[in-house]
Design goal:
378 residues, nine-stranded mixed sheet, 16 helices
């Protein structure tokens, strides 16, 4: 078995970037929506502006250099090549931490938090809150392999446990939102003694009929948010959970299509007041989109929904759990509901700002939540 860990250096061929520019220049546009705003999806003028910036002003090489400077690696686990960032802390007693992204995110989401997490003393924090940070790309995402067989969440969780042990960490914690929440929860449910606990910033624990009947005013708001998502916000998930291959043909062929499929979600799910550029820069959004376009992962990333969407909230997690409920998360949650799935909640935080992409949108608050949440697990 090949357990080698090899450095990974990005140097995308210029021909690939030239092909992207040519495709963007030849974008075939639809007519405008028949209503104002975002009710039918990304407005035409916003789509044109993003594509024009991508074609004429965006610099992939700057993102490439940042990733290369951080420390990228690849290793093969269970037959799949896994790409990951690994940044050890200068603090010898730091707590090893594996952070998992979701869809439509990537390792790009965490570039702003790696420094404060690994070296808190250099960022105004307490060195006792330091972490050794590992950030893998999910199978079928970014620069990990696109698997030829099924990789549901429990298999990913097992691979991450293998990865952490392969890096020499015999005790560690896990963190995630979106699919990262599902993977981290599966790590917590694994029963592996190396797992000291988890932190999630997407809290998925569906309420029981009794919970709904006795909902507090705050819980009623959470229920309303969930109902909105189910009625008007989960079409992307149903498509990816049922026909990921068909969707992949369109998005893999059209950079504009791939970009809008993702851009819309940053508008809907971030704490941005209706405009994604209030939360993130255009360069940050495109850095993340490029980790779908360059490796051509439209179908393989969507396939995780086909593999695991109906089992997202499976399992009871007995290890210590920290939860952070950011105010603009896709749908709300309740500590009382969460306790049904996570009976050992040791920390519950409700930061004042931030949405689904918490580390990307509000890196300082995200770091504070992880430091506070994991203190009881050190």
């Amino acid at each position: 078995m090949n357990e080698a860990i090899t450095p990974y250096y990005l140097n995308v061929a210029q021909a690939e970037l030239d092909d992207l520019a040519a495709r963007l220049a030849l974008t075939r546009w639809p007519e405008p929506a028949t209503v104002d705003g975002w009710d039918q999806g990304v407005p035409l003028d916003r789509a044109r502006a993003l594509v024009a910036y991508w074609r004429d002003s965006y610099d992939w090489r700057a993102c490439e250099a940042r990733l290369n400077a951080i420390g990228q690696f690849r290793t093969t686990i269970d037959g799949a090549g896994i790409h990951f960032l690994h940044v050890p802390s200068p603090e010898p007693d730091a707590l090893p931490l594996v952070i998992t992204h979701g869809w439509p995110g990537s390792v790009i989401e965490f570039l702003k938090v790696i420094g404060p997490l690994t070296d808190p003393a250099a960022h105004g924090g307490n060195p006792r809150d330091a972490f050794h940070v590992v950030v893998p790309s999910l199978p079928g995402y970014g620069f990990s392999d696109r698997p030829a067989d099924r990789w549901p969440v429990p298999r990913i969780a097992a691979a991450w446990i293998t990865l952490m042990k392969r890096l020499g960490y015999d005790r560690f914690v896990a963190q995630g939102g979106d699919w990262g929440s599902a993977v981290s929860s599966a790590i917590g449910a694994s029963g592996d003694p190396a797992v000291a606990g988890i932190h999630v910033n997407m809290i998925v624990s569906p309420p029981s009929p009794e919970d709904i009947a006795g909902a507090t005013p705050q819980e009623q708001q959470a229920l309303a948010s969930l109902q909105r998502y189910m009625a008007d916000g989960n079409g992307y998930a149903r498509q990816q959970a049922t026909r990921p291959q068909t969707l992949g043909y369109a998005l893999t062929d059209s950079p504009a299509g791939q970009a809008m499929w993702i851009f819309e979600k940053f508008r809907e799910w971030s704490d941005c007041g209706g405009d994604p550029l209030n939360a993130l820069t255009m360069d940050e959004l495109l850095d993340n989109i490029m980790l779908y376009w360059l490796p051509g992962t439209a179908a393989s990333s969507a396939r995780l929904y086909w593999e695991s969407f109906n089992d997202f909230a499976a399992g009871r997690i007995e290890v210590p759990v920290a939860c952070s409920l950011f105010p603009k998360e896709i749908f709300g949650a309740s500590r009382r509901w969460a306790a049904r799935r996570y009976p050992n909640i040791v920390y519950w935080g409700e930061p004042p700002r931030g949405g689904h992409f918490a580390a990307f949108e509000q890196p300082e608050l995200f770091v504070e939540e992880l430091r506070a949440g994991f203190r009881a697990m050190r």
